[in-house]
DNA sequence: GCCAACGTTGGC
DNA sequence: GCCAACGTTGGC
Protein backbone atom coordinates (compact mmCIF):
# COMPACT_ATOMS: atom_id res chain seq x y z
CA UNK A 1 0.00 0.00 0.00
CA UNK A 2 1.17 3.48 -0.81
CA UNK A 3 0.40 6.83 0.74
CA UNK A 4 -0.39 10.13 -0.93
CA UNK A 5 -0.98 13.77 -0.26
CA UNK A 6 -3.66 15.60 -2.18
CA UNK A 7 -4.28 19.32 -2.12
CA UNK A 8 -7.56 21.07 -2.36
CA UNK A 9 -8.63 24.64 -1.84
CA UNK A 10 -11.33 24.50 0.84
CA UNK A 11 -13.28 27.18 -1.04
CA UNK A 12 -13.49 24.75 -3.95
CA UNK A 13 -13.79 21.44 -2.17
CA UNK A 14 -13.13 21.03 1.54
CA UNK A 15 -12.51 17.97 3.65
CA UNK A 16 -15.74 18.70 5.51
CA UNK A 17 -17.53 18.45 2.19
CA UNK A 18 -15.93 15.07 1.55
CA UNK A 19 -17.09 13.99 5.02
CA UNK A 20 -20.66 14.97 4.14
CA UNK A 21 -20.64 13.32 0.74
CA UNK A 22 -18.70 10.22 1.75
CA UNK A 23 -16.98 9.81 -1.59
CA UNK A 24 -15.99 12.05 -4.47
CA UNK A 25 -14.34 11.76 -7.89
CA UNK A 26 -10.97 13.53 -7.81
CA UNK A 27 -11.15 15.22 -11.19
CA UNK A 28 -9.50 18.20 -12.83
CA UNK A 29 -5.84 17.28 -12.37
CA UNK A 30 -4.12 18.83 -15.41
CA UNK A 31 -0.47 18.29 -14.71
CA UNK A 32 1.30 15.29 -16.19
CA UNK A 33 3.43 14.50 -13.17
CA UNK A 34 0.42 14.62 -10.87
CA UNK A 35 -1.57 12.56 -13.35
CA UNK A 36 1.11 9.89 -13.37
CA UNK A 37 0.91 9.70 -9.59
CA UNK A 38 -2.88 9.35 -9.82
CA UNK A 39 -2.38 6.38 -12.11
CA UNK A 40 -0.30 4.69 -9.44
CA UNK A 41 -3.06 4.97 -6.84
CA UNK A 42 -4.60 1.68 -5.75
CA UNK A 43 -7.82 0.99 -3.93
CA UNK A 44 -7.17 1.18 -0.20
CA UNK A 45 -4.25 3.62 -0.39
CA UNK A 46 -4.49 6.31 2.26
CA UNK A 47 -4.41 10.00 1.39
CA UNK A 48 -3.43 13.00 3.48
CA UNK A 49 -5.97 15.70 2.67
CA UNK A 50 -4.31 19.12 2.50
CA UNK A 51 -6.10 22.45 2.50
CA UNK A 52 -4.26 25.04 0.42
CA UNK A 53 -4.78 28.71 -0.34
CA UNK A 54 -6.57 29.35 2.93
CA UNK A 55 -6.13 30.94 6.33
CA UNK A 56 -4.39 27.98 7.90
CA UNK A 57 -2.88 25.69 5.25
CA UNK A 58 -2.29 22.13 6.39
CA UNK A 59 -3.48 18.55 6.59
CA UNK A 60 -6.91 18.21 8.09
CA UNK A 61 -7.82 14.58 7.54
CA UNK A 62 -7.27 11.25 5.88
CA UNK A 63 -9.08 9.94 2.83
CA UNK A 64 -8.90 6.58 1.11
CA UNK A 65 -8.68 5.67 -2.56
CA UNK A 66 -11.96 3.91 -3.33
CA UNK A 67 -11.57 3.64 -7.09
CA UNK A 68 -8.35 3.34 -9.09
CA UNK A 69 -7.54 5.66 -12.00
CA UNK A 70 -10.00 5.97 -14.88
CA UNK A 71 -10.59 8.55 -17.65
CA UNK A 72 -11.42 11.92 -16.14
CA UNK A 73 -14.86 12.70 -17.64
CA UNK A 74 -14.40 16.47 -17.25
CA UNK A 75 -11.80 16.50 -20.06
CA UNK A 76 -14.56 15.62 -22.56
CA UNK A 77 -17.11 18.10 -21.21
CA UNK A 78 -17.06 21.34 -23.19
CA UNK A 79 -18.91 23.09 -20.37
CA UNK A 80 -16.40 22.08 -17.73
CA UNK A 81 -13.60 24.35 -16.51
CA UNK A 82 -11.36 21.35 -17.05
CA UNK A 83 -12.37 20.71 -20.65
CA UNK A 84 -9.44 19.74 -22.86
CA UNK A 85 -10.04 20.21 -26.58
CA UNK A 86 -7.09 17.97 -27.39
CA UNK A 87 -8.62 15.02 -25.58
CA UNK A 88 -11.17 12.63 -27.04
CA UNK A 89 -12.90 9.45 -25.91
CA UNK A 90 -10.46 7.52 -28.09
CA UNK A 91 -7.49 9.54 -26.91
CA UNK A 92 -7.93 10.29 -23.24
CA UNK A 93 -5.23 12.47 -21.73
CA UNK A 94 -6.29 12.79 -18.10
CA UNK A 95 -7.14 10.46 -15.28
CA UNK A 96 -9.03 10.74 -12.03
CA UNK A 97 -9.58 8.53 -9.00
CA UNK A 98 -12.35 8.33 -6.46
CA UNK A 99 -11.59 9.19 -2.84
CA UNK A 100 -13.64 8.37 0.24
CA UNK A 101 -13.72 9.90 3.68
CA UNK A 102 -11.61 7.98 6.16
CA UNK A 103 -11.01 10.05 9.28
CA UNK A 104 -10.66 13.59 10.54
CA UNK A 105 -7.47 14.49 12.39
CA UNK A 106 -8.12 15.44 16.02
CA UNK A 107 -5.99 18.46 15.39
CA UNK A 108 -4.96 19.79 11.97
CA UNK A 109 -1.31 19.25 11.07
CA UNK A 110 -0.48 22.72 9.82
CA UNK A 111 2.09 23.74 7.24
CA UNK A 112 4.04 25.24 10.12
CA UNK A 113 3.97 21.85 11.89
CA UNK A 114 5.21 20.19 8.71
CA UNK A 115 8.15 22.57 8.51
CA UNK A 116 9.02 22.15 12.18
CA UNK A 117 9.14 18.36 12.23
CA UNK A 118 12.60 17.06 11.40
CA UNK A 119 11.25 13.73 10.20
CA UNK A 120 9.31 15.53 7.49
CA UNK A 121 12.09 17.63 5.99
CA UNK A 122 12.14 15.59 2.80
CA UNK A 123 8.46 15.84 2.00
CA UNK A 124 7.80 16.94 -1.57
CA UNK A 125 5.15 19.38 -0.42
CA UNK A 126 7.81 21.40 1.41
CA UNK A 127 10.02 21.81 -1.63
CA UNK A 128 10.08 25.42 -2.81
CA UNK A 129 7.73 25.99 -5.66
CA UNK A 130 6.21 22.55 -5.51
CA UNK A 131 2.75 22.92 -6.93
CA UNK A 132 1.80 19.32 -7.57
CA UNK A 133 -1.69 18.60 -6.34
CA UNK A 134 -0.90 14.90 -5.88
CA UNK A 135 2.37 13.70 -4.34
CA UNK A 136 3.58 10.42 -2.85
CA UNK A 137 4.27 10.27 0.88
CA UNK A 138 6.37 7.65 2.68
CA UNK A 139 4.73 5.38 5.26
CA UNK A 140 6.94 6.96 7.90
CA UNK A 141 5.88 10.47 6.97
CA UNK A 142 2.28 9.36 6.91
CA UNK A 143 2.51 7.91 10.40
CA UNK A 144 4.11 11.03 11.84
CA UNK A 145 1.21 13.09 10.57
CA UNK A 146 -1.79 10.81 10.86
CA UNK A 147 -0.74 8.36 13.56
CA UNK A 148 -0.34 4.63 13.29
C1' DG B 1 -2.94 41.62 -4.07
C1' DC B 2 2.03 40.49 -4.49
C1' DC B 3 5.41 37.64 -6.22
C1' DA B 4 8.48 33.46 -6.61
C1' DA B 5 8.65 29.29 -8.80
C1' DC B 6 7.31 26.71 -11.58
C1' DG B 7 4.75 24.33 -16.23
C1' DT B 8 3.01 25.09 -20.87
C1' DT B 9 2.72 27.09 -25.36
C1' DG B 10 4.09 28.31 -29.80
C1' DG B 11 7.11 30.77 -33.10
C1' DC B 12 11.25 29.97 -35.20
C1' DG C 1 14.74 21.57 -29.93
C1' DC C 2 15.26 26.28 -27.99
C1' DC C 3 13.42 29.81 -25.32
C1' DA C 4 10.52 33.96 -24.46
C1' DA C 5 6.06 34.93 -23.10
C1' DC C 6 2.39 33.70 -20.60
C1' DG C 7 -0.53 31.34 -17.14
C1' DT C 8 -1.02 29.11 -12.63
C1' DT C 9 -0.24 27.95 -7.85
C1' DG C 10 -0.14 29.06 -3.22
C1' DG C 11 2.07 31.22 0.88
C1' DC C 12 2.20 35.50 2.78
Tell me the strand percentage band.
25-35%
Approximately how much helix is present in the residues?
Answer: 10-25%
Compute the separation of the termini in Å. Answer: 14 Å
Characterize the largest beta sheet: strand count, sense, and whether it forms a barrel.
6 strands, mixed
Total beta-strand segments:
6
Average pLDDT value? Answer: 93
Which series of helices and strands comes N to C?
Answer: EHEHEEEHEH
Globally, the shape reads: globular
Spans of 5+ residues with little confidence (pLDDT < 50)?
none
Multimeric status of the protein: single chain
Query: What is the tally of helical segments?
Result: 4
The SS-based structural class is: alpha+beta
Q: Which sequence of strands runs across the widest sheet?
A: 2-5-4-3-1-6
Radius of gyration: 15 Å
Notes on the protein architecture:
- By secondary structure, the protein is an alpha+beta fold.
- The radius of gyration is 15 Å and the shape is globular.
- The protein is 20% helix and 34% strand.
- It has helices spanning 15-21, 32-40, 111-116, 139-146, and strands spanning 3-8, 23-26, 46-51, 58-71, 95-110, 134-137.
- The protein is built from 4 helices and 6 strands, in the order βαβαβββαβα.
- The protein starts with a strand and ends with a helix.
- The chain binds a DNA duplex (12 and 12 nucleotides) through loops.
Amino acid sequence: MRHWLMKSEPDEFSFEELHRRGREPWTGVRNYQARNFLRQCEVGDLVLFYHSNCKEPGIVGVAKISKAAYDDPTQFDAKSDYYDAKASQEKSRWSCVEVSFHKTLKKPFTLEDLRTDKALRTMLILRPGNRLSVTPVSAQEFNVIAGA
